[in-house]
């Protein structure tokens, strides 16, 4: 495993910009994707970049262990799925933003914006955090955090009842996310977040065909990547859509039963309460 943080630190200490370091070796975009998104270039390219900085590739190799910050972000992402916003605030309080890499800062601001949006209902603060990601000169418009920030902006305008602006943001996101390659479970979880939010948005617009299409795509993404975290919320929304479109009762009960089972599996008590209320109705 390559220590990307160390690579970036050495480049900056040498006073080299991404353009200067990559000149004649690779494109600046390739280097940016390596530093910010963790996309490792070919061994030939990474070796030449190291040579230019007078270091060896072995200087950058570390054990393939998760960093402390990564572990905290993973916990926060799970807490976001289960609506545990106090736990997210506690995790973020343990992180020093000034010590984060670019992609870690995007993750941090995404979580801050999400808590402001979903729990604190502070649309101004939420928009600030998402715009901090979108306006960062280092971010690529294919970055998952760029897409998450766009999705967040769409949800903000949805809450403002400005459907036209909300749909504008969601359309940009879905044009990209449907073609985005899933590299690992982390990127899968972030893509699932976008798909779920889109499914909820279109359900609220009573466009149930589009909502179900996004939710079913999310369901199969969970299945293909062996991820259960989002299944409860995905199936719960499918149940709500089935009720709204007067689907057969046996299908509705199947959705409710499955949503309850996965919510219990992930100890999502908030969703279990919502499912219980839905079943009573």
From TrEMBL:
PANTHER family: TRANSCRIPTIONAL ACTIVATOR, TRANSCRIPTIONAL REGULATOR-RELATED. GO terms for molecular function: DNA binding. It holds the Pfam family HTH_3. InterPro entries: Cro/C1-type_HTH, HTH-type_regulator_Rgg, Lambda_DNA-bd_dom_sf, TPR-like_helical_dom_sf. CDD domains: HTH_XRE (cd00093). This is HTH cro/C1-type domain-containing protein. SUPFAM superfamilies: lambda repressor-like DNA-binding domains. Residues 10-60 form the HTH cro/C1-type domain.
């Amino acid at each position: 495993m390559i220590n990307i943080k160390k690579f970036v630190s050495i480049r900056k200490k040498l006073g080299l910009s991404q353009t200067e370091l990559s000149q004649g070796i690779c494109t600046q975009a390739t280097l940016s994707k390596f530093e910010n998104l963790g996309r490792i270039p070919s061994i030939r390219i990474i070796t030449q970049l190291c040579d230019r900085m007078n270091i060896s590739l072995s200087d950058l190799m570390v054990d393939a262990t998760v960093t402390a910050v990564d572990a905290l972000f993973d916990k926060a992402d799970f807490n976001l799925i289960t609506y545990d916003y106090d736990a997210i605030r506690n995790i973020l309080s343990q992180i020093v933003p000034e010590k984060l890499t670019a992609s870690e800062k995007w993750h941090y601001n995404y979580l801050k914006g999400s808590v402001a949006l979903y729990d604190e209902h502070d649309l101004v603060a939420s928009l600030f955090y998402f715009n901090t990601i979108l306006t960062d000169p280092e971010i690529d418009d294919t970055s998952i955090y760029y897409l998450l920030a766009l999705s967040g902006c769409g949800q903000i305008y949805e809450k403002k009842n400005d459907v036209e602006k909300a749909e504008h943001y969601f359309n940009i996101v879905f044009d990209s996310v449907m073609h985005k390659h899933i590299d690992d479970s982390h990127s899968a979880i972030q893509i699932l977040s976008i798909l779920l939010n889109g499914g909820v948005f279109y359900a609220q617009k009573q466009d149930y065909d589009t909502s179900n299409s996004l939710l079913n795509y999310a369901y199969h993404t969970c299945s293909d990547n062996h991820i259960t975290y989002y299944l409860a919320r995905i199936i719960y929304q499918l149940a709500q859509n089935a009720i709204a479109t007067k689907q057969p009762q046996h299908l509705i009960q199947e959705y409710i039963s499955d949503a309850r089972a996965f919510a219990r599996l992930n100890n999502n008590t908030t969703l279990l309460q919502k499912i219980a209320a839905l079943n009573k109705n």
